[in-house]
Amino acid sequence: MSRRPTLHEVANLAGASLASTSRALNGMGASPEMIEKVRAAAEQLGYHPDAAGRSLRMGRTFQVGFAVADIGNPVYVDMMKAIHEVVGPQGYHVVVATTGNDVASTADVIRSLASGVVDGLVISPLRSDDTLAAQMEQAPVPVVVVGRVHQDTTLDSVWADSAAGIGMAVDQLVGVGRRRLLFLNGPLGTTPASRRLQGFEDALARHDLTAAGMVVADDFTVDAGTRAVDGLLDDPAAERPDAIVAANDLLAIGCIQALRRRNVRVPDDVAVTGMDDTEIAAVFSPSLTSVALGSRERGRAAAELLLCRIAGESGPAQRVHVAPRLVVRESSGGPV
User: What element of type H or E holds 24?
Assistant: First the structure.
């Protein structure tokens, strides 16, 4: 077995002190020029830091957690990529965990990850209550929430106003002449469903319109959207909308698939909008009008807040707001 190069050898080749070399390899407390020089020397020698020893010496795992309801949702995939882009250069790995839709499983994930697995946690819970909020506040590692939190909490948070975003979608549909708007929502009792329903109702009131109804899907997925709209179309007593506002892009795509099977044209007969502006929205046919909530921006901001807290930064809870933005495409029948 060949001998492993040592940190001393890397320092000698880079012409730097041991302390400077160590800081540069950790990506902390060193100039960009020093980091580049030391990492080049390490690569030339084939040096790889001893992760276990580094963790023991510094009292850290050099892992951050990212806990979400559904790791297959493209919104969370974008967030995860953005988090990695921020923490990776600082020597951290991202541990991803699935919380599911209920508070109990979310609490279990927090307990598991915070017990020595990670140095900090970014979490986007679908449901929350006072007990879960207290658990996040009292966790032994820093926690940053992606989503709205109570104004009195000590937790840092990054949020986008999805209610305002739904209002933008309604405004655009009304602007192109749609009047019978139906809301395709996700599971009731979840934070996204509650906020987006409120935005829908407020927007209709602003335009002095009455909703054509609401259909509730059992999940925020394509299949759930298809099943929910199939149920609507199977009900002869249901009012037929001329526009459907979906609570996210996956539900909107499922909705369009259900409409197509009944030869309902989108947007000619029924306009459809989504939310999140995922990559599939632009390539789907018809391309999907969607409200962008800045998934990458939220992930990046959450990671930056988390690294500051891990480094020991104190101070009042930070609230970072990412503004929603409507991206108009073919599915809503407006100018593209």
Answer: helix 18-26
